[in-house]
């Protein structure tokens, strides 16, 4: 198998990390707007309202809102075939529960999609990328509450109808599986646990609501435009057993159950044995409505998109639970402690394709690193080129040698944007440098790095130049 000429080479972003203009033209607050910046290893502080004189990285981010034309022209110069972005839910419905959408918000995305169309760049649009409106969190308890299914469906219906001739590829929830993996599923589900609640129950209930919402909008989207391709999105945590001990292999299986939990339901349309076993492991319960079985069955996704950054190594502890081994001796770590593992990407593609036999889409991969501007004013980011090149090579092997169907490769943070994990700017992923620091200083000017010219050649040669 070869890489098709219509392979989607490009890059990916998310509104809250990129757009800024956090209250402009009627946008409401979302969960990212009250999150402060931090450092590697230090948890980001979340406020329940905006505090005066505190710096919040999302408020200005890197100002795509006002600079989209310049940025899209740069993406076009690199030869992008596709660009992943998210619609900020609170730009369309500032509180999340209105009946009438915010026309200025809708117009902004019209302009962005029209600009992308000018250069034949396919928009790949995430509907919910860590951007739940604050009001839904504070008034309704976020995805704990079944009402969120209706609010989300109405928001999706609004944007599906509005952009039905401008957008074909949609992604529902970003990294939905992190709802179960993270100790605090704030980004994924807008949830901060209360002291008196059973965490397992809350996670299962919120996940169920999100899975029903996912299936509902997949079905709805196909009705609105049968040409829509609607995919799910997971963080794929390729996992190795720490040794060849059968117990450690079992640890891998157990460790990955939460990830297959979501993908199974979204791809197969029902709670599989992996899911029901996971309920028991977690010791949680939740209620399903009678109609949910049919909704899940009828709303399966067209493709699986996923993020891939690192791999994890696990062993089984005495309680028969998987535990993460701090360091895999065969892998280097980035400055942010993430293992670098190109072969892990090939393995991920194989594992996912073997299990689901659905087209796969790599919608995030990249290296977060500190970039220095040299005496000539250039950024020689050879480390980024090496990282991306080695990963793309393995992806190509998965396509050519393993016959895995891959729709495209979108590098994360194709322009420097705010980091989710830390709120930093210094953790840069981009081909394009943005003049802004962690305190918010900088003139936001854009500058191509060495990797910009390298990626242009990769795209031009359809992956032959690496
Ligand atoms: C993914 C998210 O988890 O990882 C992105 O979907 C995020 O939004 C990316 O930016 C990289 O993480 P970080 O913490 O380096 O920004």
Mean pLDDT: 97
Examine the coordinates and then state which fold CATH places here, giving the name of the CATH topology: TIM Barrel
Task: Compute the number of strand runs.
Answer: 13
CATH class: Alpha Beta
Order of helices and strands: EHHEHHEHHEHHHEEHHHEEEHEHEEEH
Count of alpha and pi helical runs: 15
Shape: globular
Identify the CATH homologous superfamily: Glycosidases
What class would the helix/strand composition place it in? alpha/beta
Estimate the helix proportion, in percent. Answer: 25-40%
User: Unreliable stretches, pLDDT < 50, 5 or more residues?
Assistant: none
CATH architecture: Alpha-Beta Barrel
Strand order of the largest sheet: 1-2-3-4-5-7-10-11
Keywords: Glycosidase, Hydrolase
Enzyme class: hydrolase
EC number: 3.2.1.86
Protein name: 6-phospho-beta-glucosidase
Summarize the structure in words:
It comes from Fundicoccus culcitae. Belongs to the glycosyl hydrolase 1 family. The active site is at 364 (nucleophile). This is 6-phospho-beta-glucosidase. GO terms for molecular function: 6-phospho-beta-glucosidase activity. The protein is of the alpha/beta class and 466 residues long. It has a single domain (8-460), classed as TIM Barrel (Alpha-Beta Barrel), CATH 3.20.20. It has 15 helices and 13 strands. It has helices spanning 15-18, 64-78, 89-92, 103-118, 134-140, 147-162, 178-181, 186-189, 199-224, 246-268, 273-282, 292-298, 342-356, 382-400, 450-460, and strands at 8-12, 82-86, 122-128, 169-173, 229-235, 239-241, 303-307, 312-316, 322-324, 360-364, 406-412, 432-434, 446-448. A hairpin with a 5-residue loop joins strand 8 and strand 9 (322-324). The radius of gyration is 21 Å and the shape is globular. The two termini are 18 Å apart. The relative contact order is 0.14. Bound molecules: 6-O-phosphono-beta-D-glucopyranose. 6-O-phosphono-beta-D-glucopyranose (BG6) is lined by residues 14, 17, 174-175, 235, 307, 364, 368, 412, 419-421, 427.
